[in-house]
Every structure is written in structure tokens, then in C-alpha cells.
Predict the structure.
Amino acid sequence: MTEPIRELAKLDRVVHEPARLMILTVLEQAGEADFLYLQKECGFTQGNLSSHLGKLEEAEYISIEKTYKGKVPLTVCSITVKGRQAYHDYRRTLRAAFFGGE
Amino acid sequence: MTNESAARRAAAYWFSDGLPDMIAGVAFLAVGGARWWEEVDYPPWPLSGLVTGAALAVGALVLWKYRAILEFLKERLTYPRTGYVRAPSLTPDPGPTVLGLSPRTETPPGAANASRYFVLFTGGWGLGACVFLPLLGAGWVWPIVTFLLAGLLFFLTRHTEHPCDWPGLVPLAASGFAFVHREMTPNGRAGALTAVMGTYLLVRGLWTLALYLRRHPRREAARV
């Protein structure tokens, strides 16, 4: 087994879960989005999304801020530097395993 | 879901309610309408100067405060219905990234600049065309100008997150025939074409907004 393949065993399990990968992908590209947008974009139920956001927040990959836009209460999620790094590391590991490194 | 599609969908979402079109349309219509009114208002109405001055001020104010007005309306219409995502032009440049798992490295196409693209190319080009093309003069040029305007809008926006679909551009292309037999000064022609452009954007925005409101009835914003 080559080294990049072995690296797959060290994949970050927080990022590796498909639902959380979807959330991180959206946030990595959009910068920040609120709960409702993420729910519609990724097709989650409220409970499911809450649970995954909680895990990502616990890992400090995203930050969640309850704020107001005008009079509308919004739960705005944004990706942190640590989250962006974890996301890029995850992609780099997969790429190295599939295509043979950088 | 690829990176590209996530970024482009976030950028396209910004235009899904029709508000960016509507606000630009109001500004174009106010500025163009004021200039055209100066042309057709003969003998001049006593308050004409005041009205055209006010319309020009409204147009300039709307263009100047474009983003603030847009945010104000989105806070009341869009965010409670379909949620909030950061405006595309405020998104930091993600730099070189990988599309899916392909080894090829590319920058996502223009997603981060969607709203800037819209304002500069759709709006800016339209305004530029409205000022220069009518200087050609003769009435028969009008249909050509509006046809070119429609064609260029289609061409410039076809790969963006906010493309102008061709059925919607047909009335804009055909609007030139309404001016074939009108004698106008260059100032009046520029005003009329700006107003035509503004009307197109306003109608397009209203239509998009009507569809959006029908698809997304108001509901309470979800919380974690």
C-alpha cells in the first residue's frame, strides 16, 4: 500500500461525513449563509441540519451567530480558518490518493 | 455538488428574487425618462424642470445607494422566505481551487464577481450604449440598436449566474420599431433608449419577483 493511500485512514471524520461535507462545501464557497439557505440548498430537515451544524461548531470548523437582518432573526453560519484548513486538507488527501500527490 | 456549482448557486441566489433588476430598472427609467421628457415636453410645462430634476436625482440616488436599497428590500422579502447568503461581490476571492477531484486547478468562473459583473456589464454597457449608439441619428437605426442591445445582453450574460433568456429579450429587441417614425434630438434618443433599458430591467425584475413570491410564501425563519 502506498503512502497516499494510507493517508486515507487519517481522513478527518468530521469532514468526511457527506452531510457535513456538503455544509462545508457551501460555506467554503459562499463565505457565510443562514440556516434556512443551508437547509434548502442541502435538502436537510431542521433537526438533521441542527445536529450537523452542532458537530461542526464543536470542532470549531464553523461559527454560528444568531443575528438580525432588519427585523428578521437569522442564524448565520460561517466557515472558520480552522474549518477551511480542514476542508482543504481533506481534499488534498483524497486528491493525493486518487491522482498521486500534488 | 462541486465547488463550482456551490459558488455559482450562491451567486445566482442573489438574483433569484428579481430585486437587483428592479432597482437598476428604476434608476435607468428615472434618468432616461427625465431626458426623454425634456424632448417631448413642448411647449414646456411650468414645473417641467422641477420634475425632471427630481427624476434625475432619484435615478442618481438609486444608483449611488444601490446596495443599501437592495439589502433593505431583501431583509423584508427574501431572507424570511429562502434565507440569507453573503452577497457574491463580498465573497473573498477563493483563489485557485480544484473542481471536484480533478487534478486540474482552476479559479471558479466569475462567481465571486457576479453582482459586480451585473452592474458593470449589464448596467454599464447598457448605459454606454444608450449614450453613444443613438447618436447615429436616423429613425431606421432604432430597431438595429435595440436588436444589438438585446443580442449583446444575451451574449455577455449567457455564462453568468444571471443570464438574460432570449424570450425575455424579444420585446426589448422589438421596442426599436416604436421609435422609427419619431423625430428626436440625440439627447432625446439617448433618454428614450435608457428608458427602454430601464423598462426592460424593471419588467424583468417584477416578473421574477412575482414568480419568486408565488414559489416561496412567507414563513418563519428557521432557528438552530
About this structure: Chain A has a mean pLDDT of 87. The CA atoms of residues 40 and 83 of chain A lie 22 Å apart. Chain A has six helices and three strands.
